[in-house]
DNA sequence: CCTGGCCGCCTCATTACGTCA
DNA sequence: TATGACGTAATGAGGCGGCCA
């Protein structure tokens, strides 16, 4: 499913949206190759007066207006957050529904592209005009139960049951007001939010409102989704980092074990072969700039002043392949003389 | 220029719900 | 059918920065 939203002036427009094909027809549903497209103008508020005063949205903004208490306030906040705005009205282009959606729609007996599955925003205008909407969460609920994951796997015969559950639940909410605690987002909604998240992990108020409109969610829900998504990303990254550090630790442990073994071999060699015993001791020095480690002879100090060039940077005297962390310095350059770290 | 209040957004920790084995 | 594990939507607390009087 592709949805396109063309904003008048977005500081950070969705890149993936630009890839979407545009439906040129505006303000009415139109049939394109048997699929439906919908485009509507959305007036983003531009008043600078006190909070909650301005309401210049298009008709479907009423859905948010009907939201209760906190959510309603949130919507106000988000539409006014940017302060004065001279942006042109936002044009929302809803692109043709995917075959999956169309199939579902037709299986429900409705016209393709107009059935309630997932976030079928095409329901919105008719709903706003002809029906009374208690809240956008009602719409969400209805859409969720009308479609979503279960719908994909269940036979069409369950439609009536699902619809009944939806209406029952909705009526419960009507009675209790705030009984709704949690809604599962549909696959399409999640996928679309995921796409947005790939573009940018945070949203400005305009993008949030636009996304909410497009997905038939409250801006607060979009906001919460992005917050939770960032948290999940961070958690996952932490796990990856932890795994990486664990592997580093294991490698270092193995390296340490190997070095111990090599040291024992060298000691054994020293006792059995006096030639190696006459070789100067070897220590490791680290270049402070590039942090590379090299072997350096620590032969007894010469009688005359130390000549910098006398310092040996030869590889290990033994035929030992250097590890990743132990290798001779690269050739010194004027701007990189490879001075050992001052201790 | 400084300051305090307000607001919006963030992270973080936690809760609560839906789903699945 | 009941249950526990898991994923995730939602909530609340607290911090921070911007704006404004």
Automatic annotation (TrEMBL):
Subcellular location: Nucleus
Compositionally biased spans, kind Basic and acidic residues: 162-171
Entries under InterPro entries matching the protein: HD, HD-ZIP_Homeobox_LZ_Class_II, Homeobox_CS, Homeodomain-like_sf, Leu_zip_homeo
GO CC terms, sorted: nucleus
Biased composition annotated in UniProt, kind: Low complexity: 306-315
Homeobox domain segment(s): 176-236
Annotated keywords: DNA-binding, Homeobox, Nucleus, Transcription, Transcription regulation
Annotated DNA-binding residue span(s): 178-237
Compositionally biased spans, kind Polar residues: 46-55
Pfam family, one: Homeodomain
Alphabetized SMART domains for the sequence: HALZ (SM00340), HOX (SM00389)
Positions of the UniProt region annotated as Disordered: 46-92, 150-181, 293-343
Recorded superkingdom: Eukaryota
Positions with biased composition (Acidic residues): 61-79
SUPFAM superfamilies given in the database record: Homeodomain-like
GO molecular function: DNA-binding transcription factor activity, RNA polymerase II-specific; sequence-specific DNA binding
PANTHER family the record matches: HOMEOBOX DOMAIN-CONTAINING PROTEIN (PTHR45714:SF93), HOMEOBOX-LEUCINE ZIPPER PROTEIN HAT14 (PTHR45714)
Homology family: Belongs to the HD-ZIP homeobox family. Class II subfamily.
Protein name from the UniProt record: Homeobox domain-containing protein
